[in-house]
Amino acid sequence: MATTQLTAEEEQEKLMEQAKGVVNTEAFHMKRCLDNAKLMDALKHASNMISELRTSLLSPKTYYSLYMTVFDHLRHLEIYLYEEKHGKKMSELYELVQYAGNILPRLYLLATVGSVYIKSNEAPAKDVLRDLVEMCRGVQHPTRGLFLRNYLSEMTKDKLPDSGSPYEGKGGDVKDGLDFILLNFTEMNKLWVRMQHQGPVRDKERRENERLELRILVGKNLSRMSQLEGIDVAMYTESVLPRVLEQIINCKDRIAQQYLMEVLIQVFPDEFHLATLEQVLAACGQLLTGVDVKAIIVSLIDRLAQFAVKSPDTIPNEVDIFNTFFLHVGKVIDQRPNMEVHDVLSLEVSLLNLSLKCYPQKLEYVDKVIGFCVSYLSGLKSKETTDYTKPVAVKQIVNLLTVPIDNYKNVLTLLKISAYPQLQEYLSYTTRKKVSVDLVKNVIENGTIIGEPDQAEKFLALIQTLIEDSPDQPDRSDVDPEDFQEEQNMVASVVNMFDNDDPGKLYKIYLTARKAFIAGGQDRMKHTLFPLIFRALRLVTKIKDQRSDGTLTLDDDDWGKIGKKLFQFVHDTISHLKENKDLCEWTLRLFLQASQSASYCDFETIAYEFITQAFTIYEEDIAESKQQFNALIIILSTLRTLSCFSDENNDTLVGKSAQYCKKLLKKPDQSRAASLVSHLFWITNTSSSSSSSQQQHKQERRDETRVFECLQMSLKIAGGIMDAGQKTNAFVEILNEYIYYLDTKCGTVPPSHIPTLIQLINTNLSAKEVDPNSPEIIAINTYYQNTLKYIQQKKESDSAYAHLSVQ
Amino acid sequence: MVLILVVGDTHIPHRAHDLPSRFKKLLVPGRIQHILSPGNLCTKETHDYLKSLASDVHIVRGDFDENTTYPETKVVTIGAFKIGLCHGHQIVPWGDHQSLSSLQRQLDVDILITGHTHKFEEFEINGKFFINPGSATGAFSPLSNDVVPSFVLIDIQNTQATTYVYQLQGEDVKVEKIEFKKTL
Q1: Contacts of residue A786 in chain B, CB cutoff 8 Å?
Q2: β-strand pairing of B121-125 with A682-683
Q3: ipTM score of complex
Q4: Which residues does A386 contact at the CB level (< 8 Å), separation at least 6?
């Protein structure tokens, strides 16, 4: 005959079903007896029913289920005892139930009757309570004892002598209620801790799990305490907390300490915690090393931080919660040398959050926290442990750096925290870079202006990982060029955030920045020096304008010195880029931009020098024909805007550019360039330019002869172009130049030339080599037809066009 | 209704750190169909930002654009309008109405968009329309003092182009409306 093996769970189910069966049967009988007013018999059945709770076979979970069933049935009894006229006095009943056979049913019944006893007011509450809580000592079995005491607690929860309760006065006062709960709590904790040591070592894990299942029973006592109305801050400080802490510390049990500290913090109000901060933190220091003190302290810090944010006025000024926490956290960390790095750091992060939330003005607190972390980490480094490089620890170090950034939204505040830069040293290259990028993004997104030279210097030092090479950076080949470019462009953006109304200070900042950027090497300079150049040009232009409109008084000498200094700065900065031959097109353009500013500020020699530099680059470094053409156009168009030159200098420069035109490789380019040169000889203020008054030239030039020469040269070269399409295009362009000069009232072009040119174009277009359907010819023809239409329209309104005949 | 954003000469990061936040709030993705830029953005990041606003983006090469593959000129047909794009640093003299008119004839467009001067301008010559959106970031220019940040929005309906110019004066965005009807 085989017996079926049941799993542990199924065993428990079976046992519980059996027990419940008995319980329900006895309960049924009990109720029937009560209905028939047979009290003694009912009590007998009740006793039988409760006896099922005497079992040792059930796990905490199943025991709980059975307990609840019994609990419900005892409710019925309680109601009967209170409401029905059973003729017995409470004291009598109280005696009667003590005759129950076994101690457990006896005590359950006592508790039930006792609660009714108190409710009926036939005895002082405190006496009954004391009696009950003492008698429960009779049950020393952990599980059974815990549930019994829990029953007692449930039964009496609304019958405690509290301030304002009906049981106050003769029944006692809140101190008695408190004593009752405290004693119950202490005894329950003892039972609970005892569970840890019952049974063989190999079952330890199961026992600990069972203990965790029962923890709420013990914790509830603390909740009860917190619900007593009569406990104020003073009473809590003197009577409640010391005794609770004593129990927690002395029980020397890890599970109990961990759980009960957390409950303590949870159930009592923030005001109580504020008043007793020292004691609680000191107690934390005395907890066993296995306890996660960090979690406890962090939950306390977070609670108080939130409280401080919601009701800032309630924090008394004498209570400096930050310093209290800081001191004790330091002590705790000292006492626990084996504490994990990330735990230490996350404690400090909580402190940081507290300081930022509650004391946002006190930067010294943030400095204290970060300073502490720096010395802690440096201590680790000297011991040659690398625990701080583990991801969990790194995460906390990054938090320490980025939480202030996000909080202040202003890097200038960050710069005042002296320990901040040192913290970065403990991060890997990649993480340091990421923090630097966050710092830069913060400046850009918040539009923070960095005005003081020392601020700029400190800031650049903070983002050093972006500015120059680091010894621990990866190989160039491992770096994504797009990412690199994006980072450098961000740094470049920040240069635009350096600003100060005092030009001297601003100049100092630019010098500092340039020094830092040059140390970064050519790869970085080609991104970071550009904005510096433009900012310097902007500065010198601004000073000139302020002088002109009177906002700034500066005598000619001083202005001369400042201007020279700033333009020298620009010159030197662009020159640093010159070394990189790949940048020749850019450096040429930069020199041209600089020359425009120099002209605007009337520094003729300097403008001339800039143009010379541009020409040198053009001659020496720009070899490819397309690049040459583009560069030459910029040179010509720039020259046309410069108005500071003497006639002699102007002639030299224009002459030089004209030479360049002739040296271009392709004829169409030569032709175009030559016609553009013509514009250098016709500069009037009556031409409809779009720019502001600034572009009103200080000197007009009206040299019709030279204009004509250029156009004729252009025409001659065009005539030599062999490709029919390109030749025709060149002619149409020249035709439009003629029209330009007609419209600007320059009498350079004899009237006969235009019809002649038109004839020439017509002839070329109808030549047999020309394919009228090719896209190139169609485009040129469209240009040409539009030009003719324009001339036709102008004939009706402008007398200059009157003589033109258009075929 | 077809909306075209005309924006250029931002010079980020060479001369500005970002578009003004007031402008960025107005530029919501999904509302604009086309973006036409006369160039000088100058970097990929700004180009990507424009691409996030609309899928059809046209850019021509400015003298400081990092991307050297942008064309010198471009012609785009939107609705009834042929629109030309050119940065304008290639036109001598810069910003000269007559010279721009010549370019318009060459490209054969109804509307010509150019930049470079960092100064907003709109004018008409012989039934053709010329727009310079200015600099969206108010970037420094040796040609203008006190550059006002600006950009233009064009609303095309049949042969009518309504332009809205947005200018940042102090903290406020001022909008002006100018209408242009295509002559057939």
Answers
A1: 105-106, 108
A2: unpaired
A3: 0.95
A4: none
Distances (CA, A) of A218 to A83, A106, A230, A679: 32, 22, 22, 97
Percent of chain B at pLDDT exceeding 90: 88
Residue of A593, A743, A782 lying closest to B142 (CB–CB) = A593
Closest Cα of chain B to A543: distance in Å?
Answer: 12
A594: its two tokens: 């600089």
CA distance A314 to chain B (A): 39
Rounded mean pLDDT, A660-666: 93
Which residue in the set B91, B96, B140 is minimally distant from A687, CB to CB? B96
Q: Cα(A151)–Cα(B140) distance, rounded to whole angstroms?
A: 81
Q: Which residue of B has its CA nearest to A629?
A: B90
What tokens does A216 get?
């709420």
Categorize the per-residue pLDDT at A4 as very low, low, confident or very high, splitting at 50, 70 and 90. low
Please tell me if residue B45 touches chain A, with a CB cutoff of 8 Å.
yes
Q: What is the pLDDT of residue A71?
A: 94
Are B12 and A744 inside 8 Å of each other by CB? no
The DSSP result for A189-250, as a single string, is: HHHHHHHHHSS-GGGHHHHHHHHHHHHHHHHHHHHHHHH-TT--HHHIIIIIHHHHHHHHHH
| pLDDT tens sequence across A256-301 | 999 999 999 999 999 899 889 889 999 998 999 888 998 999 999 9
Q: Give burial (CB, 10 Å; 0-12/13-18/19+) of B26.
A: middle
Q: Does B74 contact chain A (CB < 8 Å)? A: no
- The one-character DSSP state at A58 is S
Average pLDDT score over residue span A777-801: 87
**Contact, B5 vs B32, CB < 8 A?**
yes
- Cα–Cα distances (Å) from B138 to A447, A497, A529, A537, A562, in that order, read 15, 14, 20, 15, 25
- Taking contacts as CB-CB distances below 8 angstroms, the residues of chain A near B149 are none
Whole-angstrom distance, CA of residue A627 vs CA of residue A584: 10
| B17/A444 Cβ within 8 A | yes
Model confidence pLDDT, tens digit, residues A424-437: 988 989 999 999 99
Asked if B43 is an interface residue toward chain A (Cβ–Cβ < 8 A), one would say yes
Across all residues in chain A, what is the average pLDDT? 89
Residues of B in contact with A690 (CB under 8 A): 95-97, 117, 119, 121, 132
pLDDT band at A696 (very low <50, low <70, confident <90, very high): low
Beta-carbon contacts of residue B56 (< 8 Å; ≥ 6 apart): B33, B34, B35
Instruction: Please name the residue of chain A whose CA is at the shortest distance from the CA of residue B131.
Output: A690
Q: Tell me the nearest-neighbour CA distance from A601 into chain B, angstroms.
A: 10
Round to whole Å and give the CA distance between B41 and B45: 9
- Secondary structure of residue B78 in the 3-state scheme: strand
- pTM comes to 0.83
Which residue positions in chain B have pLDDT lower than 50?
A: none
B95 touches chain A (CB under 8 A): yes
Separation CA A525–CA A588 (nearest Å): 16
Other CB atoms within 10 A of residue A307 CB: 20
> For residue A688, which residues of chain B lie inside 8 Å, CB to CB?
96-98
Examine the pLDDT at A94 and tell me if it is beyond 90. Answer: no
The alpha carbon of residue A699 and the mean position of all alpha carbons in its chain are separated, in whole angstroms, by: 56
Q: At what angle do helices A522-548 and A556-578 cross, to 10 degrees?
A: 160
Nearest by CB: B145 against A534, A541, A783: A541
Give me the residues of B, 125-154, that contact A with CB < 8 A.
126, 132, 140, 142-145
Q: How confident is the model at residue A806 (pLDDT cuts 50, 70, 90)?
A: low
pLDDT tens column, A161-182: 888 888 888 778 888 889 999 9
Give residue A729's identity as a one-letter amino acid code.
N
Strands B172-181 and B150-157: unpaired
